[in-house]
């Protein structure tokens, strides 16, 4: 579900339509004890056999009447949304993107002398984790290379946070307002059409209250099927694809943070709050 946050869909396109490019997304799974597992996924469309569709799917896609399609030379192809994903205890998102993109390229081209399973087993079992003796590990891919670097020794917790991305999307004043809302344990909904930005910003938001720790529900990239969490009575930090708003309206007590338009929309009772209330 987290690998395909908008759901696994079957779509019908014109035969000459341009295929959407593969998209990269990141997500975080949080255990009951607060431990994090970092996920990365490449989502793409793969052609699907029309013969494998059910009658209901055929009707929904407008493919039921083949005679009309043949009569008017209407050529359509069916595609299904798929994903290749990777889970890790470490947020090496840049390296994961290169590796998953390599697997995707292998899956759509071929044949290859080395099977895909061998690439996966090599990356999972043969590549060592960076250590003080070897702080940087270089991994050679078929047409590219990636590096795994030992995390810096820092009092801040290691995560996939990007404060540069946060400031670039909101600016300093809105970021300070967001800090105030987090300290007040508000219901915060981050949204963007760029899935990788959601995780980077959510991690930055939860990390910038250090040495405090966010202990309420935390879902940087929430699948559409789990969006009912926004009705929870407790504070939360949740990120969703902006297409969520095409289908639903968020609860009135939620603070919506639009990372694409650089805008924060607080509820009526919080509109007077400002970062200027923070101690100097």
Walk me through what this model shows.
This protein has 280 residues and is of the alpha/beta class. It folds into two domains: 1-90, no CATH class; 163-277, Rossmann fold, CATH 3.40.50.11500. The protein has helices spanning 55-60, 66-71, 93-108, 116-126, 163-183, 195-207; strands at residues 10-14, 23-30, 36-48, 76-88, 136-140, 145-149, 187-192, 218-219, 236-241, 255-258, 263-265. The chain has a five-stranded mixed sheet, covered by helices on one side. Helix 5 (163-183) packs across helix 6 (195-207).
User: What does the radius of gyration come to?
Assistant: 22 Å
Please give the count of helices.
6
The percent range for strand residues is 25-35%
Main beta-sheet strand count, sense and barrel state? 5 strands, mixed
Instruction: Please name the CATH topology of the largest domain.
Output: Rossmann fold
Strand order of the largest sheet: 8-9-7-10-11
Relevant CATH superfamily of the largest domain: DENN domain, C-terminal lobe
The assembly state of the depicted protein chains is single chain
Distance between the termini: 43 Å
Q: Averaging pLDDT over every residue, what do you get?
A: 86
